[in-house]
């Protein structure tokens, strides 16, 4: 019931109900709350109990936590301490290991470094002397040869410093201060030869303060510089390149190396500033003036100059601006290079192993050096505790490992190298032979500038010889095969490119060098053979017999004093005249045994020395025999030059240079070669060089290179300057057509570019030697049809006569001045044109029915026009006309008295019976190979003259080929010897003539001859002054007081060689005398002048004692004309011989004209009894004639009969092409026809040789 219903019933009930409900509610709540309250109370009790417990526990926990924190703190502290100790232990351990490594690693270095330190301390003191010599080396010695450098540095300078007690390394070595092994290894691996000279040159090239100018005939420096600088972008140019300035500018700007190759004696002044390093500007910018342009200068820029000239004449300015370095290969250096070539060929693997080894050694040495450097750098740069520098220790460890490894490798390498060297040394004799032969070949350039050979072309022949020589398993035999083949191949190679007259010289030079190498011939013996006695004093001992040559007796005196083998020679000669005279008179004494057993006791060479004293004319033949005996006959039989062989040896890359001699014509031979090998004449191009042909030549060359043609440029000597351009084109040529060949012809000329000569195959073409070969060659070029072209019966016979005449005029050349005054270039074209003339005239005679041959026209056209047109000397033309008269006329067809060109017991030269060409060819084949001079109308003695001259020429060339240093046999040095000779000459020089005083004494009225005297004295004063000045300056130069100029150098060389210096020669009359004989002549001149000045004009004048004898003769005519009132232009001279033998015999004085003495007759003898010309006596080449009288006369009154008009010359060189040398013409009585003496080449000379 609800409360509302209750209220409705009863309010009290409602109240009660409310109460009951409340109690009920309370009761229900109380029943529910009470257990909860109890639980709460219980729980509160528990709570308070727990709280108390908790507080207690919390307290305990807090205490524990505090304790734990304390413990933690302690723990952490303990752990930190532990960590620190661990770390310290690690560091200590590491440091211990590092220290151990450093100690063990550097321990080995310590000893070395201690020693080095000590050494460096000492070195610091010794640096003074070392640097002094090294800087002097870098400044002065570059241009000298190895021997001279060695003497200068290691003898003169080192000894001088030691004497002055300047501190200096002992032993001192340039290489120690200026370079090191590593650098040297690098250089050799780049192609620099390893010999000492080359290493020195390497130092000079890289270390000198000036830019290097390399004298490099063998191109070794060139190859090294190219290889060395290749990685640095090297630029190569020549001064002839149009753009060389642009290239140089770029190189200077960007610091590239720059090389001028093929520099000659002229260096373009535009590069002077660069050479002198005239660098301007400050820190920010450096520049150099190139021409008128400022070019920024990069300090890395390097300039090299290189020349192929072996002995360039540079002025002091070039030596000042650049470092002139002599790279000329030495014998030892070349020997090592050739050894490599031989070993490479014989034992390829050995040489490859060696080259590998050199390469590896070079790399290893560099590595070792780099490692040591990096170690020292680390040590020096190390900061803080060294033991903590891990990198340092690692570097050290790596360095040590590698260093040990590298050292082992180097030790092994050194051992292997020693083993390899032992094996290689087995082949050294062949390499040495090769080196000697190269020098013989290279030195020939001093005989003729055209004889130039490069090392590269020599190496080709060398390798070719290795291939061609017979293999053999026994080394000694193999070496002998190599050496024999090589020597012969070099002989053949050399002979192809040298003139006939120098071939024996070449053989002799090969022979002598090989003999000197074996110590079979000493330099003193060779000097005597070449120069004879050089001293100016005549020997005290007079010659015992009249037949003994004067010069020979002087030589004998020197032989007896200087050489023990000849000590008793003079006594032996004096006591045994008969034996010596018999040997002396023999035709071929060189092949006869020497008298008195000299044969057994003399070596082969000493026999030559003795022969020199007796018979100079047999020396040439004796040298031939000597060569035959010592190295074999094949060295005196030069190879026959066949064009096929020349073609085989040639290649498209190297031109063939024909060196022309008079009478040779390679063009026609080349055409024949092209026909024989079926090359096709349309592919053969000819161009004769001359002004304006340059462009044409280059166009032809371009076409020929691309299309494989043959191009022959003829007479290149006419356009020598252009040849440099040609050389450039050949340099640029890379892949020519394999058929291409370039043929050049030139006369010998000093200006011909050496580079072309060195790379070319040189061929000397000469007309055949001897009548037979000459005629054979002529007939070889005449076809059968050419002989039958003309129907005239006399034509073949006249062609034969012309061929004989052509051979005779050519062969006369070899007898020198007795043959022709001027050597003419008679050649095939002369013969061809004359044959055409014969054909024309005889055909015309046949057509017109003329029986007579027009001899006069033919003789005039052939003798005067064609051949005579070449003759510029009247006496030579006289010879040609005489031959025409002798060979041309109806008498050659006379059947009653058959015609002979020449006939004696052994040989008969005549015109064969008419017939085809073969008849004439067969007859020529039957002729003897050699012919006597009589065939040409000369005296048999002409051959003696020819051989004597040949020997003298050979000696003069040999003098040039000798080393110009060292000591003479008497043990005095070259300089002392020269100074002694200079003093001897000075002692003989008088004071100069006082011309003013002499003029005063002569008064006003002086005769024409006195004028001549005054002119003569002026000239002799000039000569005396010049001699005195040059000798005094030379003495000062030898003492080192003044510089040695090239002029003084020439004087010194001439005095050393016993010749007259050129500067004296220019002021003296022409002469061929040696210095000693010339001084005797000089004193004779002074004596004549003194007599003339102090007493009176000599009654008998010595013409050769006058400077210009013709002036005296002109004065004579003048004086006579004045006296007799004759017109000067219509007066002349004639001569007559007297009976007076000597000048002292003349007692009379001439009223007009004069007496002259001291004339020598050449080509004939003089009969003193009957006063006329007679043939020469055997072996008497010249004869002094009695005193001659020269008489002026009016030309129209001169009527002479039975006389021969004889030219009078200054020397036996007669007249030259300029007409110098002819003094006057004498008239000598004769019983023979004048033509006889004309062909004998008779003349008078004022001076003997």
Automatic annotation (TrEMBL):
<keyword id="KW-0243">Dynein</keyword>
<dbReference type="GO" id="GO:0051959">
    <property type="term" value="F:dynein light intermediate chain binding"/>
</dbReference>
<dbReference type="GO" id="GO:0005874">
    <property type="term" value="C:microtubule"/>
</dbReference>
<dbReference type="GO" id="GO:0005930">
    <property type="term" value="C:axoneme"/>
</dbReference>
<dbReference type="Pfam" id="PF18198">
    <property type="entry name" value="AAA_lid_11"/>
</dbReference>
<feature type="domain" description="Dynein heavy chain AAA lid">
    <location>
        <begin position="796"/>
        <end position="942"/>
    </location>
</feature>
<dbReference type="InterPro" id="IPR041658">
    <property type="entry name" value="AAA_lid_11"/>
</dbReference>
<feature type="domain" description="Dynein heavy chain region D6 P-loop">
    <location>
        <begin position="652"/>
        <end position="764"/>
    </location>
</feature>
<feature type="domain" description="Dynein heavy chain coiled coil stalk">
    <location>
        <begin position="4"/>
        <end position="158"/>
    </location>
</feature>
<keyword id="KW-0969">Cilium</keyword>
<dbReference type="Pfam" id="PF03028">
    <property type="entry name" value="Dynein_heavy"/>
</dbReference>
<dbReference type="InterPro" id="IPR041228">
    <property type="entry name" value="Dynein_C"/>
</dbReference>
<dbReference type="InterPro" id="IPR043160">
    <property type="entry name" value="Dynein_C_barrel"/>
</dbReference>
<dbReference type="InterPro" id="IPR042219">
    <property type="entry name" value="AAA_lid_11_sf"/>
</dbReference>
<keyword id="KW-0677">Repeat</keyword>
<dbReference type="Pfam" id="PF12781">
    <property type="entry name" value="AAA_9"/>
</dbReference>
<keyword id="KW-0493">Microtubule</keyword>
<dbReference type="InterPro" id="IPR027417">
    <property type="entry name" value="P-loop_NTPase"/>
</dbReference>
<feature type="domain" description="Dynein heavy chain ATP-binding dynein motor region">
    <location>
        <begin position="186"/>
        <end position="406"/>
    </location>
</feature>
<keyword id="KW-0966">Cell projection</keyword>
<dbReference type="GO" id="GO:0045505">
    <property type="term" value="F:dynein intermediate chain binding"/>
</dbReference>
<dbReference type="GO" id="GO:0030286">
    <property type="term" value="C:dynein complex"/>
</dbReference>
<dbReference type="GO" id="GO:0007018">
    <property type="term" value="P:microtubule-based movement"/>
</dbReference>
<feature type="coiled-coil region">
    <location>
        <begin position="40"/>
        <end position="95"/>
    </location>
</feature>
<dbReference type="InterPro" id="IPR035706">
    <property type="entry name" value="AAA_9"/>
</dbReference>
<keyword id="KW-0206">Cytoskeleton</keyword>
<dbReference type="GO" id="GO:0008569">
    <property type="term" value="F:minus-end-directed microtubule motor activity"/>
</dbReference>
<dbReference type="InterPro" id="IPR024743">
    <property type="entry name" value="Dynein_HC_stalk"/>
</dbReference>
<feature type="domain" description="Dynein heavy chain C-terminal">
    <location>
        <begin position="948"/>
        <end position="1246"/>
    </location>
</feature>
<dbReference type="GO" id="GO:0005524">
    <property type="term" value="F:ATP binding"/>
</dbReference>
<dbReference type="Pfam" id="PF12777">
    <property type="entry name" value="MT"/>
</dbReference>
<dbReference type="InterPro" id="IPR026983">
    <property type="entry name" value="DHC"/>
</dbReference>
<keyword id="KW-0963">Cytoplasm</keyword>
<keyword id="KW-0067">ATP-binding</keyword>
<keyword id="KW-0505">Motor protein</keyword>
<dbReference type="InterPro" id="IPR004273">
    <property type="entry name" value="Dynein_heavy_D6_P-loop"/>
</dbReference>
<dbReference type="Pfam" id="PF18199">
    <property type="entry name" value="Dynein_C"/>
</dbReference>
<dbReference type="GO" id="GO:0031514">
    <property type="term" value="C:motile cilium"/>
</dbReference>
<keyword id="KW-0547">Nucleotide-binding</keyword>
<comment type="similarity">
    <text>Belongs to the dynein heavy chain family.</text>
</comment>
<keyword id="KW-0175">Coiled coil</keyword>
<protein>
    <submittedName>
        <fullName>Dynein heavy chain 10, axonemal</fullName>
    </submittedName>
</protein>
């Amino acid at each position: 019931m609800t409360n509302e219903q209750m209220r409705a019933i009863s309010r009290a009930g409602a109240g009660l109900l409310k109460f009951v409900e409340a109690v009920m509610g309370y009761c229900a709540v109380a029943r529910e709350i009470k257990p909860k309250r109890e639980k709460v109370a219980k729980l509160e009790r528990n709570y308070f109990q727990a709280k108390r417990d908790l507080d207690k526990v919390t307290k305990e926990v807090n205490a524990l936590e505090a304790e734990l924190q304390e413990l933690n703190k302690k723990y952490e502290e303990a752990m930190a301490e532990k960590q620190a100790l661990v770390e310290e232990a690690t560091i200590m351990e590491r440091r211990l290991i590092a220290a151990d490594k450093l100690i063990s690693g550097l321990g080995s270095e310590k000893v070395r470094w201690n020693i080095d330190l000590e050494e460096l301390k000492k070195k610091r003191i010794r640096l003074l002397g070392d640097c002094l010599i090294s800087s002097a080396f870098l400044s002065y010695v570059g241009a000298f040869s190895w021997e001279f450098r060695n003497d200068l540095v290691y003898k003169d300078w080192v000894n001088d410093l030691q004497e002055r007690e300047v501190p200096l390394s002992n032993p001192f070595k340039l290489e120690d201060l200026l370079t090191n092994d590593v650098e040297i290894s690098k250089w050799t691996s780049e192609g620099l030869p390893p010999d000492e000279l080359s290493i020195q040159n390497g130092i000079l090239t890289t270390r000198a303060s000036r830019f290097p100018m390399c004298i490099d005939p063998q191109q070794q420096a060139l190859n090294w510089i190219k290889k060395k600088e290749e990685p640095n972008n090297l630029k190569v140019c020549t001064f002839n390149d149009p753009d060389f300035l642009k290239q140089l500018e770029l190189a200077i700007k960007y610091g590239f190396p720059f090389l001028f190759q093929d520099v000659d004696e002229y260096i373009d002044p535009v590069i002077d500033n660069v050479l002198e390093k005239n660098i301007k500007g400050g820190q920010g910018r450096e520049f150099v003036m190139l021409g008128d342009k400022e070019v920024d200068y990069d300090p890395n820029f390097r300039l090299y100059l290189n020349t192929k000239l072996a002995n360039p004449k540079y002025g002091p300015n070039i030596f000042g601006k650049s470092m002139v370095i002599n790279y000329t290969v030495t014998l030892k250096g070349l020997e090592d290079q050739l050894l490599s070539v031989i070993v490479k060929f014989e034992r390829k693997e050995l040489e490859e192993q060696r080259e590998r080894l050199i390469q590896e050694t070079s790399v290893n040495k560099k590595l070792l050096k780099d490692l040591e450097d990096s170690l020292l750098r680390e040590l020096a740069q190390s900061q803080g505790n060294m033991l903590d520098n891990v990198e340092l220790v690692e570097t050290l460890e790596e360095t040590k490992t590698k260093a040990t490894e590298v050292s082992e490798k180097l030790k092994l390498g050194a051992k292997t190298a020693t083993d390899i060297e032992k094996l290689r040394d087995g082949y050294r004799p062949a390499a040495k032979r090769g080196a000697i032969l190269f020098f013989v070949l290279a030195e020939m350039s001093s005989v003729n500038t055209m004889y130039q050979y490069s090392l590269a072309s020599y190496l080709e022949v060398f390798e070719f010889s290795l291939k061609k020589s017979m293999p053999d398993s026994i080394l000694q035999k193999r070496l002998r095969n190599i050496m024999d083949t090589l020597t012969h191949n070099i002989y053949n190679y050399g002979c192809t490119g040298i003139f006939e007259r120098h071939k024996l010289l070449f053989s002799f030079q090969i022979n002598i060098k090989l003999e000197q190498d074996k110590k079979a011939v000493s330099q003193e013996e060779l000097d005597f053979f070449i120069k004879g006695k050089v001293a100016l004093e005549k020997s005290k001992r007079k010659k015992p017999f009249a037949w003994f040559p004067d010069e020979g007796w002087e030589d004998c005196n020197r032989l007896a004093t200087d050489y023990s083998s000849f000590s008793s020679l003079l006594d032996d000669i004096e006591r045994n005249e008969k034996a010596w005279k018999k040997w002396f008179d023999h035709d071929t004494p060189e092949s006869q045994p020497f008298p008195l057993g000299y044969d057994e006791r003399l070596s082969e060479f000493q026999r030559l020395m003795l022969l020199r004293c007796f018979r100079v004319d047999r020396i040439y033949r004796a040298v031939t025999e000597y060569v035959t005996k010592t190295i074999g006959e094949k060295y005196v039989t030069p190879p026959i030059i066949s064009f096929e062989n020349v073609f085989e040896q040639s290649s498209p890359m190297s031109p063939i240079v024909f060196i022309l001699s008079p009478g040779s014509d390679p063009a026609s031979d080349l055409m024949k070669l092209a026909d024989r090998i079926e090359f096709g004449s349309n592919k053969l191009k000819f161009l004769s060089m001359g002004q304006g042909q340059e462009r044409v030549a280059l166009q032809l060359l371009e076409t020929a290179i691309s299309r494989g043609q043959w191009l022959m440029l003829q007479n290149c000597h006419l356009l020598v300057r252009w040849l440099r351009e040609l050389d450039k084109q050949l340099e640029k040529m890379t892949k020519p057509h394999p058929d291409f060949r370039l043929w050049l012809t030139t006369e010998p000329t000093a200006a011909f570019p050496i580079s072309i000569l060195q790379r070319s195959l040189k061929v000397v073409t000469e007309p055949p030697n001897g009548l037979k070969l000459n005629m054979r060659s002529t007939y070889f070029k005449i076809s059968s049809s050419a002989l039958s072209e003309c129907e005239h019966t006399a034509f073949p016979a006249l062609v034969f006569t012309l061929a004989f005449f052509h051979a005779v005029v050519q062969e006369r050349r070899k007898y020198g001045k007795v043959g022709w005054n001027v050597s003419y270039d008679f050649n095939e074209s002369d013969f061809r044109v004359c044959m055409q003339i014969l054909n024309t005239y005889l055909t015309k005679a046949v057509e017109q029915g003329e029986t007579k041959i027009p001899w006069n026209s033919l003789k005039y056209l052939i003798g005067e026009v064609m051949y005579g047109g070449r003759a510029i000397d009247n006496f030579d033309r006289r010879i040609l006309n005489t031959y025409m008269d002798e060979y041309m006329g109806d008498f050659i067809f006379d059947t009653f008295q058959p015609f002979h060109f020449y006939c004696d017991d052994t040989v008969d030269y005549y015109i064969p019976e008419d017939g085809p060409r073969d008849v004439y060819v067969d007859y020529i084949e039957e002729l003897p190979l050699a012919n006597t001079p009589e065939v040409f109308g000369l005296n048999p003695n002409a051959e003696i003259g020819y051989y004597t001259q040949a020997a003298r020429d050979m000696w003069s060339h040999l003098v040039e080929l000798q080393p110009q240093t060292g000591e003479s046999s008497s043990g005095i040095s070259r300089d002392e010897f020269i100074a002694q000779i200079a003093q001897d000459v000075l002692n003989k020089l008088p004071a100069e003539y006082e011309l003013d005083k002499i003029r005063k004494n002569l008064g006003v009225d002086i005769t024409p001859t006195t004028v001549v005297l005054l002119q003569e004295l002026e000239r002799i004063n000039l000569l005396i002054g010049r001699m005195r000045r040059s000798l005094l300056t030379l003495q000062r130069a030898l003492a080192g007081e003044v510089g040695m100029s090239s002029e003084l150098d020439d004087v010194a060389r001439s005095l050393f060689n016993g010749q007259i210096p050129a500067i004296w020669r220019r002021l003296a009359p022409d002469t061929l005398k040696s210095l000693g004989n010339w001084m005797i002549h000089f004193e004779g001149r002074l004596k004549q002048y003194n007599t003339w000045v102090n007493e009176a004009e000599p009654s008998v004048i010595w013409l050769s004692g006058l400077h210009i004898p013709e002036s005296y003769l002109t004065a004579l005519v003048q004086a006579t004309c004045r006296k007799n009132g004759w017109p000067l232009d219509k007066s002349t001279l004639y001569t007559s011989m007297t009976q007076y033998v000597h000048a002292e015999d003349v007692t009379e004085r001439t009223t007009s004209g004069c007496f002259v003495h001291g004339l020598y007759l050449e080509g004939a003898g003089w009969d003193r009894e009957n006063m006329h010309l007679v043939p020469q006596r055997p072996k008497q080449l010249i004869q002094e004639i009695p005193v001659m009288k020269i008489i002026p006369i009016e030309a129209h009154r001169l009527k002479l009969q039975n006389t021969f008009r004889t030219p009078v010359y200054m020397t036996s060189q007669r007249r030259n092409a300029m007409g110098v040398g002819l003094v006057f013409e004498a008239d000598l009585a004769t019983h023979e026809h004048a033509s006889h003496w004309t062909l004998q080449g008779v003349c008078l000379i004022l001076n003997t040789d």
